[in-house]
Amino acid sequence: MSEPAIEVYENEGRSFPPPADFAAGANTSDQSLYEEADADYEAFWARQARELLSWDTDFGETLEWELPHAKWFLGGELNVSYNCLDRHVEAGRGDKVAFHWEGEPGDKVTLTYAQLLTEVKKFANVLKGMGLNKGDRVAIYMPMILELPIAMLACTRIGVAHSVIFGGFSADAIVDRCDDAQARMIITADAGYRKGAPGLLKPTVDAALDGGASTVESVIVVNRCDTEPSMTQGRDHWWHDVMADASDDCPAEPMDSEQLLYLLYTSGTTAKPKGIMHTTGGYLTQVAFTHKYVFDIKPETDVYWCAADIGWVTGHSYIVYGPLANGVTSVMYEGTPDTPSKDRLWQIVANYGVTQLYTAPTAIRMFMKWGEDLPGGHDLSTLRVLGTVGEPINPEAWMWYHEHIGGGERPIVDTWWQTETGGNMITPLPGVTATKPGSACQAIPGVFAEVVDDAGNIVTEGGGYLTIARPWPSMLRGIWGNEERYRETYWSTYEGRYFAGDGAKLDSDGYLWLLGRVDDVMNVSGHRISTAEVESALVDHPAVAEAAVVGANDDVTGQAIVGYVILLGSHEPSQELGNEIREHVGKKLGKIARPKTVIIVPDLPKTRSGKIMRRLLRDVADGRQLGDTTTLADPGVVAEIAAKAAEGGDED
Ligand code: PRX
Fold it and tell me: Any residues with Cβ below 6 Å from ligand 1, and which?
């Protein structure tokens, strides 16, 4: 394992207790939930499952734990779309707004719970009509439009597992994911608005289907931008056509608590992404619980907004499943925060009277750069809780968020979790916890986070590796089709413990400080990208002989991808070639994985055992001004690499 990429903020002594008026009205404001969970955590989660969700059949045993396999709420049956929709409508809340949706160009749609339910039932019938059955997998590759949650919920209604593929991914990425999951259908759109213009999706799906994804039988296409994509007769269908006469009679089917709900692919330390498996009862319990208590949700009055993309786990759990299970009104936004103007987010907060905002440190750092006048020009006084997720937040960004968005008083919840954990794991509770800028504070009630040293001994104060000592309801149930990798990645490093892959430090107050990944996974703008994946895309270019990739520090994106490449003998280094290599990665993997910088080097520093010395390459990258371009290794860099390599020592 390598050292975590960032340093802990040693002298952070500031502490912000919950404002008294906030605590007075909060969903929880004392230690009672922690005490209850510590006394009997299975009973605690069983209570949450029964109180927060509606079950068709009550469960018997709460937890069966055969390391590393957990089953929660055994024998229980429930339906996710019923819990997210029908029960609110049945309780007379059908006219409540589920989503205030806003397109990037400014078009708006308001969808009530009753309307959303009708659309979901119709689309579930479309899926059934096209031959999809319980247990099948469907890929979804869509922009942030309402048909995306409709498609997801329709899948859950009939027990089809969705696999949402982020709209920025490439054709190759679609092929890999569809092949691995054996997806029978892709649901997509012609395009989605991105920075003022349609970002095309359907041609990418076509390229994927030309190049593989042979299990896909049909494609359903939403017409979002009128880009007139080519449609393959017999295979491709317009959403509006198949929905036109679909029946809205479609009862929700009770599902076993452990029925596969979805797959979501995430990057690991090898070039092949992992299909993380989430199931029904445990997942919905934890996302509903955390959403309610971490964001202090008051469904009657709140307008909640998670400004993430549903292509990532944050959107699954905190745009779709948590908020709908809790029956709250949400905002959903299609576009980027700088289009048409850099105060777009603040306009939306003010227009809808947003009460909770959930975003990422990389976005906050960008807002800082743009200046406080932009939020300052809008009425943000409705905000009650501010959330952050995806990467460690530096205290400067935390303080800026606190002062300029939170008016110096709103609680900030810095939520640590992962695709694998399904829901929030380590975070303050806004009415309970005194927060410290840069710390995710402590594990939620019912989750047992512990820091261990190299040997697996528990650290009570100081640095080490983050582990989770007991199973939790929304934990991954495995890696699709790869039991060995599941055991190896998460359960083999420390016996009996889930190994998160993050470094962490416990301070003398028992607060956790996350230190970033300790494996070869980069975190760019809160997105996980594997060094191995980018390296394999780099060497896929015909001019590249060998490549090493590191995440360098970046003021805005947290880390930036830097690729060092050695060219094959017949190729001359040039700016053009370097750029071509960068673009090649963008095409292979998607733009988010395109290196910020490609450095062409004559050699790579290696240990005596032949391992690339990444730490050294990171140091070199951190010491340089990185441009958005190719950098040829100047003699200084080469000398530096050579000199440092000569200093020797095997990197662990
Ligand atoms: O390194 C941690 C970082 O993001 C990783 C998980 O990435 P992903 O599965 O894509 O999920 C991101 C959204 C849940 C973690 O291993 N991470 C996430 N949240 C935080 C964080 N690091 C520090 N503080 C956080 N709040």
Answer: 266, 313-314, 389-392, 414-419, 440, 500-502, 514, 516-517, 523, 528
